[in-house]
Amino acid sequence: xxxxxxxxxxxxxxxxxxxxxxxxxxxxxxxxxxxxxxxxxxxxxxxxxxxxxxxxxxxxxxxxxxxxxxxxxxxxxxxxxxxxxxxxxxxxxxxxxxxxxxxxxxxxxxxxxxxxxxxxxxxxxxxxxxxxxxxxxxxxxxxxxxxxxxxxxxxxxxxxxxxxxxxxxxxxxxxxxxxxxxxxxxxxxxxxxxxxxxxxxxxxxxxxxxxxxxxxxxxxxxxxxxxxxxxxxxxxxxxxxxxxxxxxxxxxxxxxxxxxxxxxxxxxxxxxxxxxxxxxxxxxxxxxxxxxxxxxxxxxxxxxxxxxxxxxxxxxxxxxxxxxxxxxxxxxxxxxxxxxxxxxxxxxxxxxxxxxxxxxxxxxxxxxxxxxxxxxxxxxxxxxxxxxxxxxxxxxxxxxxxxxxxxxxxxxxxxxxxxxxxxxxxxxxxxxxxxxxxxxxxxxxxxxxxxxxxxxxxxxxxx
Length: 463
Prior knowledge:
By secondary structure, the protein is an alpha/beta fold. It has helices at residues 7-23, 30-40, 48-59, 66-76, 104-115, 122-135, 149-156, 162-172, 178-208, 210-217, 232-257, 267-274, 307-320, 349-359, 370-381, 406-415, 437-441, 452-460; strands at 137-141, 144-147, 295-301, 326-332, 336-338, 389-394, 418-423, 446-448. A hairpin with a 2-residue loop joins strand 1 (137-141) and strand 2.
């Protein structure tokens, strides 16, 4: 970052950076933004690494937020700007190689030298920038050029250098295990690819505007991705978020089920203690309370409109089996069926979800009908809900203009110890079209639950 940045431009850049983090889904409060601004007064602004870590220390709450943060930092505080290190790559001889005019085999030799060394060497980053400058600008459409990483990586093919690098490292470092050498080579190749991608983004930002490229480049962190838009690959990542949430949910529900802090009278211990006072029970002894493990019933909308949300909630149900005395799971579209046995111990959860869609009797006409679902549930599975049960309903409350069966839901919720409804739609869309959110919410407390972060917030409300 250049040292000639004025106070005004730094303030503007700081505000833009913080706003970009928020738009990318990173939770940054006003107080945290002010803390970051205060940190800038205590550091050397010309030291870019210190600047990065000062921002990270004040704005990044979780390790999963760091990749998106780093991408945005590199866009808003680039290490260089185009032209700041000369007008052409040929003016930056690298290891004796004219990077502008050298043939590709010679450039690959130079890349091999860098991949075998320390990726923190400034020459490593300079080489990546020079290669972007030489190969990265290609025809994007008729009459328009842009910058692309694939063009650089296609020209140099760093992955094909692995065998050469492996032989070289094993020969130079006698006794180095091959597995460790392969891991180091793989890390350095990935680092080179990242450096190329970073410089490509910087150049596009200079031409198109940093705000535009920031919005299109950075994905929200995994706990902020909307359930209704999650991909299969992201769903696999979400599996890692499930088990901590399951433990917390079970703990919260257990706390709510406690009747008090004191246990029942322990008669034997009380009589034994009274012997020291002539048989007068001056001190009573109480039995320690046993933690209550609640039962859980999950009613999950499995219609196409909320399919990815239902997949995640079924992952959660799968994890909850170990935390509750009994878990019974039911899926529905316009009728309802129990799917508990599909999630038996030892079952693969993804296979179970596939079986559910194929084997469970949850569809008659294929259009969600919450009213019919609640009526059928009350007829077939009324015994599932009792005074020890926490009832959890998961769905968007859209019933295709069918009768909502509020009285039936009220009876079911009345039998349960607790009942909650998680809705994956934004609250602003509740009661629009065929949504019966307010009606159902008047019977069972309804919470917006669009992502893992909101699910965690819901769990924290169960005091």
